[in-house]
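Q: Okay, next protein. This is UDP-N-acetylmuramoylalanine--D-glutamate ligase from Pedobacter cryophilus. I've checked the sequence twice, so it should be correct. Can you predict the 3D structure?
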Amino acid sequence: MKNNQQHIPHSAPSPLERAGVRPVGVRLVILGAGESGVGAAILAQKQGFDVFVSDFGVIKEAYQLELESYHIPFESAQHTEELILNADEVVKSPGIPDKAPIIKKLKEKGISIISEIEFAGRYTDAKMICITGSNGKTTTTLLTYHILKNAGLNVGLGGNIGKSFAKQVALESFEYYVLEISSFMLDNMYAFKAHLAVLLNITPDHLDRYDYQMANYVVSKFKITQNLTAQDHFIYCDDDIEIASFLASADVKAQHHPFSIEHETINGAWLQQNNLTIQLTNSDQFDMSIQDLALQGKHNVYNSMASGITAKVLEIRNETIRESMGNYKNIEHRLEHVANISGISFINDSKATNVNSTWYALESINTDVILIMGGVDKGNDYSMLTDLVRQKVKAIICLGKDNKAIHDAFEDEVEVIVNTFSASEAVIIAYHLAKKGSTVLLSPACASFDLFKSYEDRGNQFKAAVKEL
């Protein structure tokens, strides 16, 4: 199929139509034909909507074929307004900003705009475990899923990771879902409710989408708690200043489960010396040495606490939790060990697209560091990295088109700052600057779209360059 043209399906009935599902005349337009959009389209068709999918970018061939297989009409590389502005409701990809022209026109017409999560939540009675935070949400989501899966629960994984939540609701029958929820998703969620809501932390990120106002971003993150009842559970970091400050005046009706590495908590988790303890009301106590955790570093103690409390709320046996936390393997592009060459460790942390993620990465490394960072700056404040850079970083290699902010932030802290424009160039220079026993760390603190297709592409090019050494 050529780009810039609509795809109208053949007149032959789809398998769902043959099964007796008939459109009810309600027009649902889906903007964005990635994983979430295509999944929402499949669920919408199953529920009998008049579905149309539109993507201003070029739809990947695999997704085009999937839409065609369900006889769902779509258009690629354009938005045809007369086919969109007649919608009764719109499901929007979280990547489309509110300032996009088509979104402004939909709002002017008063057409409801929701997220895939909001839409899919209408059609399942499964228990929802929803995890958000500026950092650590992917790791915590996968660790929680790992524990629940090991416990034998019938559980699906979705949201900002893995398969579309909506597609799973359409085609699967899970009793639980572990969902990674971004602030962009939360912005278009209204009636949806979690049963267990997890808020890991709130640090400056994506402020360009929130008028560069931290308060707006905090409000967005706290939407994870909307619609919670006294029967539900709110799991949160009690050490996070933004969470503690907002929570002091917020009315979150759920049962509270704080976790902390700084002090003992009530009905939650805490760290005492090197022992992680979880003690919930009316539940036996869970203890585990942090040295036995598969995920090391202070940030991962927090992630493990959040996952452990979730498991205890669901009454999973201590032995299963302990075993799962001990054998979990981390995700690709998140503090991923790539190789050790001539005594130099190479670590791929390409998923670190904000300053706080890079802080966590530097905090977890105990050697001298050659730091590769840079990309699309989202209004970053690099000052929180100053102390760690001064202590550990021997050179910074900028990987991006505009590196001025990095130079300004660190030119007095490190002796060497080098500009590069490819992963291969960055790796070669890093290798020559590194010494035996040190670490070359790709932890960009920035988005990737100036030089790469995605953070995955950036991480894969980094790994390929390391293997060429």
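A: Here is a summary of the prediction. The longest helix spans residues 298-313. The chain has three domains: 6-114, 120-327, 336-467.
Q: Noted. On to the next one.
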